[in-house]
Write a structure and sequence with these properties.
By secondary structure, the protein is α/β, with parallel strands linked by helices. It folds into two domains: 100 residues, Rossmann fold (3-Layer(aba) Sandwich); 39 residues. It has a four-stranded parallel sheet, with helices on both faces. The longest helix is centred in the middle third of the chain and has 34 residues. The protein is elongated.
Length: 191
C-alpha cells in the first residue's frame, strides 16, 4: 500500500518543483518524474510506474493533465490501474478517486465516457458532411494512390516480374514495393 507520485512537465525548461512540493507535502513513498510532452506516445517513467504498480498502491498526481493526454487515454489508464487493484487520485480533480468509498468517481467516469464518445461521433459526422460537400463540388478525389501509373518503383517491380528472373520476395526487397501492392498492380494490368 504505497503512495506513488507521478510528475510530468512538458519541456526541459519547465520546473516540476510545484508538483513535487504538492506531492511531497502529503508524503510519497516514491515519485516517478518525466520531462516530455504529454502528446508523446512513449512515456518511459509512466510505463515503469505502471509496471511496478502493486495491489493496494495509490498513484497521486497534481492534476489529470499531468498523467493523461485525452479522455480516452484516461479511461485506458484507469482500466489498467483497476485491473491491478490499485487507485488513482488527483489533488486538483478531487472527484477522481478510484477507491470503493467514492461511488461518484464511477458515475463521473461513465458521464465522461459518454461525452467522449459523443465528441468522437460529432467529429466523424462533421468529417463525413465535409467530404460529401467536397464531392458535390468536385473537389474530393479520395485518397491519393501511393502506387500511381507513373510510380517508378511499382513500374520497375512489374518489369522485373515480367522478366521472370527473380522471386517476388527479391523484387519487393529491391523496389521497396509490398507484395500486396505488386500483386494488385499485376491484377490491374491483366484486366
Amino acid at each position: 500500500m504505497r503512495k506513488i507520485g507521478y510528475v510530468r512537465v512538458s519541456s526541459v525548461d519547465q520546473n516540476p518543483s510545484r508538483q513535487l512540493k504538492q506531492l511531497n507535502d502529503i508524503g510519497m513513498d516514491i515519485i516517478f518524474q518525466e520531462k516530455l510532452s504529454g502528446a508523446t506516445q512513449e512515456r518511459p517513467e509512466l510505463k515503469k510506474m505502471m509496471g511496478a504498480l502493486e495491489e493496494g498502491d495509490t498513484i497521486f498526481v497534481t492534476d489529470l493533465t499531468r498523467i493523461t493526454r485525452s479522455t480516452r487515454d484516461l479511461f485506458e489508464l484507469v482500466d489498467e490501474i483497476r485491473n491491478k487493484k490499485a487507485n488513482l487520485k488527483s489533488l486538483k480533480d478531487t472527484w477522481l478517486d478510484l477507491s470503493e468509498d467514492n461511488p461518484y468517481s464511477n458515475f463521473l467516469m461513465t458521464v465522461m465516457g459518454g461525452v467522449n464518445q459523443l465528441e468522437r461521433d460529432l467529429i466523424r459526422m462533421r468529417q463525413r458532411e465535409g467530404i460529401d460537400l467536397a464531392k458535390k463540388e468536385g473537389k474530393y478525389k479520395g485518397r491519393v494512390k501511393k502506387y500511381h501509373d507513373n510510380h517508378a518503383g511499382i513500374n520497375y517491380a512489374v518489369k522485373l516480374y515480367n522478366e521472370g528472373e527473380m522471386t517476388v520476395k527479391q523484387i519487393c526487397e529491391i523496389t521497396s514495393v509490398s507484395k500486396a501492392a505488386l500483386y494488385r498492380r499485376l491484377k490491374e494490368l491483366n484486366n
